[in-house]
């Protein structure tokens, strides 16, 4: 079983769904297990993993937090100071 890198760039919702599915599987959780832990319906987890474009952002962030992930927003490439 492959482990996740400590950082991963996500540019499409499909990549995020794949990441959630991979991490859930690595943690030995079923979709309904994750839904119960996150306080969402099973359908929400299914939709998240299948790239449904209209999911509620706060619920997505809550699931990511529960799975030990965080979202960091930064500018692409070097910042304005060249760092």
Automatic annotation (TrEMBL):
Q: What SUPFAM superfamilies is this protein classified in?
A: lambda repressor-like DNA-binding domains
| Species | Vreelandella malpeensis
> Which InterPro entries is this protein grouped with?
Cro/C1-type_HTH (IPR001387), Lambda_DNA-bd_dom_sf (IPR010982), Tscrpt_reg_HipB-like (IPR017507)
What is the superkingdom listed in this entry's lineage?
Bacteria
- Specify the protein name: Helix-turn-helix transcriptional regulator
State which residue ranges cross the membrane: none
User: What lineage is this protein's organism placed in?
Assistant: Bacteria, Pseudomonadati, Pseudomonadota, Gammaproteobacteria, Oceanospirillales
């Amino acid at each position: 079983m492959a482990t996740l890198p400590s950082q991963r760039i996500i540019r499409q919702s499909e990549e995020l769904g794949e990441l959630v599915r991979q991490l859930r599987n690595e943690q030995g959780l079923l979709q309904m297990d994750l839904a119960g832990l996150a306080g969402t319906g099973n359908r929400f987890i299914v939709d998240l993993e299948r790239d449904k474009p209209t999911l509620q952002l706060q619920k997505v962030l809550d699931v990511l937090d529960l799975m030990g992930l965080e979202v960091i927003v930064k500018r692409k490439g070097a910042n304005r100071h060249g760092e």
